[in-house]
Amino acid sequence: MGKDDPWAVLDIGGFSINAGKSDEDSPEFSLLNCIADGEVAPSNSGFEDADGEAHNKYYDKIQWPVEAGAAPDPEEMIPIYEHLMGSDCLDIDHPKKDIAGVFLVEPVLNPPANRIAAAEHFFETADVARFYVGLQAHCVMDSQGRESAICIGQGHGVTEVVTTYMKYDLRHTAQRVNWGGKNLSDYLRVQLMEDDISLGTSDKTDELIFRAMKEQLCQTAGKGKYDELKDKKSEDFTLPDGSKITCNVHTLPEAVICPSMAGRPIPGIIDMLEASLELTPNDAIEELTGSILLYGQSLTFPDMKKRIVEEVEELRPNNKVRVFQFPEGPIMIWQGARILAEKSEFYDPQEDQPKPFIKKKEWDEFGKSSIRRLCPC
C-alpha cells in the first residue's frame, strides 16, 4: 500500500451518512441513512428528484437500519454499503487497488457484533485489503488538533461522554446511554399529541418532518428560565404538503439536559459529565473542563452551549470552564477520521510493523476474533 492510496472514510450515523476518500478535505457525499423498497436515499433531503419533489411512494416504506449506534439486522446495512462503494457514490470498482481500506466510525462502548458484521461484509464481499473502526470522540479531537478534551456527543440514538488526557484514553471514565435525537423526536410527537396535532404520516416518516421542526422551532432555555421559554407564543410550521400547524415545542431541548421529563429515567448530559469527572484524576480536571467539545445534531440547538457552561460552572465553581461548538459540526467526525487515516501509522511499508487496522490476511487467519482488538473502548 502506498501513501497515495486513500482510505474510504464512512461516517454512518443513525440518521445520516458522510462518505468520502481521505485525500479530500470534505465528504464527497452526504445522505440519509434510510432505505425504502431496497433503495437508498440519494441525498440528505431524502427521496426527492432533481427538482426537489418528494417521491411519495417511498415515504410509507422508509426503514432506518441503525438504532443506538448499531444495526440490529446487519443484512439491512448491505444495500447501504453497496451504494456507498458503488458507481452512484464513491465509485470504487477494485477495492484492493483503488483504496487503502475502509475506515468506519462508531460511538463509544458499541457492541463488538456491529463491527464484526461490517468487517465480514467488507472483507468477504467487498474484498477490501484493510479495515479499521475509530471512535467518534477520537475523530472529533483529531479534527480540532486536541490532545486533552472531554468530548460530549449526542447523535440519533446515542449520547456519550469520552475523556482523553494528553493523548491517553481514560477508558474507565467513558459514559454512554442509548438516548438521542430519535428519542427527542418521540417526545416531540407526544407534545404534538397533547396539543391534538397529528401529522397524518407514519412514525418512520415523521423523522424527516421532526428534524425540520427541531431546527426551526426549538431553542435551549437558560438555567432557571424553562418556564419563561415555555410561555413563549406558539409558532406556525409548514408541513411538506403545504398545510400548516401551530405549536409550542420551544422547550424540547430541555430533555437533552433532563431526559426524565420525556419519561426516560436516565442521566442527562450534565449528569454523565459529572459521573465521568468523578472518575477522572484530580490533577487533570482543570485542563479538561477547559476543553469540552460538543458534537452531534442535538447539541446544536440555539443557546445549548451557553446552558452547558452554566451547568458545569455550577458543578465545578473552582475550575475554568470552556465549551466549544464548531461550524463544521455535521461533518466534523468525518473530517477527523480522514485526518487520522492520513497519519503514517495507517500505511505499512514494512509488513512486520504493527498497525492499528486489520488486514485481509489477518481476517482470513483469525476470523472474527481479529476484530476484537479494534476500538477496545
Structure description:
- The protein has 377 residues and is α/β, with parallel strands linked by helices.
- The protein has three domains: 8-140 and 330-373, Nucleotidyltransferase, domain 5 (2-Layer Sandwich), CATH 3.30.420; 141-179 and 266-328, 2-Layer Sandwich (Nucleotidyltransferase, domain 5), CATH 3.30.420.40; 181-256, ATPase, substrate binding domain, subdomain 4 (Actin, Chain A, domain 4, Alpha-Beta Complex), CATH 3.90.640.10.
- The chain is 33% helix and 17% strand.
- Strands 3-2-1-6-7-16 form a six-stranded mixed sheet, with helices on both faces.
- It is globular and about 65 Å long.
- The protein starts with 7 loop residues before the first strand and ends in an 11-residue tail after the last helix.
Strand content: 15-25%
Can you name the CATH architecture of the largest domain?
2-Layer Sandwich
Any idea what the radius of gyration is? 21 Å
**Mean residue pLDDT:** 90
What profile does the largest beta sheet have?
6 strands, mixed
Q: Biggest sheet, strands in spatial order? A: 3-2-1-6-7-16
Number of domains: 3
Question: How is the CATH topology of the largest domain named?
Answer: Nucleotidyltransferase, domain 5
Q: What's the SSE pattern?
A: EEEEEHHHEHEHEEEEHHHEEHHHEHEHEH
Structural class: alpha/beta
| Number of strand elements | 16
Give the helix level as a range of percent: 25-40%
Which residues sit in consecutive blocks of at least 5 with pLDDT less than 50?
A: 49-55
Approximate shape: globular
Number of H- or I-type helical stretches: 14
The CATH class of the largest domain, by name, is Alpha Beta
